[in-house]
Amino acid sequence: GAVVSQHPSRVICKSGTSVKIECRSLDFQATTMFWYRQFPKQSLMLMATSNEGSKATYEQGVEKDKFLINHASLTLSTLTVTSAHPEDSSFYICSVIPGGIQETQYFGPGTRLLVL
Amino acid sequence: AQSVAQPEDQVNVAEGNPLTVKCTYSVSGNPYLFWYVQYPNRGLQFLLKYITGDNLVKGSYGFEAEFNKSQTSFHLKKPSALVSDSALYFCAVRVYTDKLIFGTGTRLQVFP
To answer: Residue B35: its chain A contacts at CB < 8 A?
Structure first.
């Protein structure tokens, strides 16, 4: 399957600062990447779909100005949490689909964000 | 609206016994169904999927799942559980688009 990496794996920041999370597709070119958020003991919630070379598509209720997504290349998408607050503390996971909708979606290892 | 239900928050089973983790779905159209496993502080690992064909799908680590269209179910099974199978399991469905819709997850606890 596809190999997806995320960096950093864990980050602690002060309230009001911005944090950038990178998602890389290591073994194929991904025109589309997905960003999920997972609260403790809860399911994954899709935040946005990252499209290479164009604007991301955000799910209802997700603030696009707070969660900035940049998909500048076929192997890299970044999620920037701007002016982070404690309620943004969560587990952020990216994923890719190396093909059509019948294909398996592969996930990165996740990034644990803690905002103090 | 498309949805996935995992009715059990937790399943407990003794090592060596068979295990079942339940999943039902509600979609319009033909579903693509997936099972993923998540270990603590890790991303999701793909176990198996049903796209079309044989209703019994075999996947990684000895897991299998049976697609039942009449009952709209896709239960995950394993004949003999291992302690190392203890983790969080997610059922997911995809219809028409590339978005995955996840169930709420079931925590599997296998006791020695």
So the answer is: none
Contact A104 B104 (CB under 8 A): no
Residues in chain A with pLDDT < 50?
none
| CA–CA distances in Å: residue A87 to residues A15, A45, A62, B4 | 10, 15, 13, 27
Q: Is residue B84 classed exposed, middle or buried when 0-12, 13-18 and 19+ CB atoms within 10 A define those classes?
A: exposed
Q: Where residue B30 falls among pLDDT bands split at 50, 70, 90?
A: confident
Tens of pLDDT, residue by residue over B61-110, are: 999 999 999 999 999 999 999 999 999 999 999 876 768 889 999 999 99
CA-angle at B104, arms to B9 and B93, nearest 5°: 130
Give the C-alpha distances (Å, rounded to integers) separating A82 from A69, A95, B79. Answer: 11, 21, 47
* Under 8 Å between Cβ of A35 and A50: yes
Cβ distance A4 to B43 less than 8 Å, yes or no, reads yes
